[in-house]
Amino acid sequence: MPTWLRSPVVLLAACILLPPLGLVLLWMRPVAILKKLLGTGAIGVIVLAELVFVFGMRMERKGDGLTPMLSFEGKEKHFEELERNRSAQTGQVKEPANEKASAIASPVAAKPEAPASADASPATMVTAVPAVWTSFRGPDLDGVYRQGEILTKWPEKGLPLVWKQPIGLGYSSFVAGEGRAYTIEQRRDKEVVAAYDLQTGKELWTHAYAAFFQESMGGDGPRATPTYHGGYVFSLGATGQLCVLNAKTGEVRWARNILDENQASNLPWGMSASPLIVDDKVVVQPGGNHGNSVAAYNKHTGEAIWKSLDDTQAYTSPMLVTLAGRRQILTVTKTRVVGLDPESGRLLWDYPWETEYGVNSAQPIVVDPHRFLISAGYGHGTALVEVTDSGDSLRAKKVWESKRMKNRFNSSVVYKGYMYGLDEGILSCLRVSDGAQMWKGGRYGYGQLLLASGHLVVLSEEGDLVLVEANPEKLVEVAKFPAIEGKTWNVPAIENGLLLVRNGNQMACFRIGA
Are residues 41 and 111 located together in one domain of the fold? Predict the structure, then answer.
């Protein structure tokens, strides 16, 4: 080896500027093996530091809590890209320079009532019809799109892209109303409720407030999906901030922090349950242990109407259902499934449902006038529960229970007597009547799925969109294409033939209507 290559200065420079060369030079030096091993470890530290601080590498974990996912766009770079995109939307509309550019949300004036951009083609226009996808997982919170038929034969390159652009962090989904899509995002140290034009993706208004939820396993940002109702957006942030906003302007009607007000502690993975509108009430789940675990407020004024239970809250959203002939609020706490009287919050019945780590995240699914399915991951499984009226009270009892469908933080759908869902990341089909497993296959990770036109629309954990037949006989994958980049746990939404997807990196809209 030439003398100059033995210089410590040369070795140090090589280790910093070109670590593989530094490693070679280190092992060519006539030094003790122990020093070479220690030097190799030091070079590894240098490489890791450069990947993180120079190239912006971030390591997250997949839904199994173990498998790493690497990305090379740091938070600062992502926020800068997001801010440039939104700033461009306040400028002059320009003709797209190429086909790729036309897929990016058109920069238009950010006014609440701004018309669609001039370059929006008829194929991307949305007819003004009453909104349907106004709640988490659709109007009935069951993940079923009933507004029309969808395309069941997709082009080879995937569904037609309407628009695509960066978005803030978080796991909120979209809801729709008044030709707009609404969601919650993390932008630097603020939670932001944002309204977007469905036709173009342009940002119409935002409401921001200081809140930053951080969690090492799941990631940063808000979790719960807003609810649209009667011209207002009801939004709950990860730290308990409940806001009621004018859907056209973003103006705040009233706001309060439900954790502070009810002396309740936040959950390890943050507040995740969407607000439920029942008549003149908005129902939320602060989880207070002094008779205020579930709370109903006047949706117009924010005045408390009733509070109920002493349970620690879970991650599922309350639902308005009818079981055993009784209109009721169906929800899940840390330890049980409960039915509550909508007018008073009084407990009507309960069914024990306790999962390891206290993680109940999957939505119950009502399958007939008396029965519902409930599922959980972490080795728990699925149960079919029947609610009956004994004359003076309602009672819940188990029909069957199986470990063959374990929904961790993704919910199943039911079609023609069969349950389809991700069993710890693998698509599976169970017969509702007895819990028998029909088939299992299709590794889509901890993504999400919807039901439309007799098909499953799956958004995988990797950001792929997949079309699968809702077929109890076998797994039939019809189509698949990459939709967005990055870890994707967010539930997709379909409104008037438009499929909306997002994660903590990108948001996109595809034409899926037939």
Answer: no
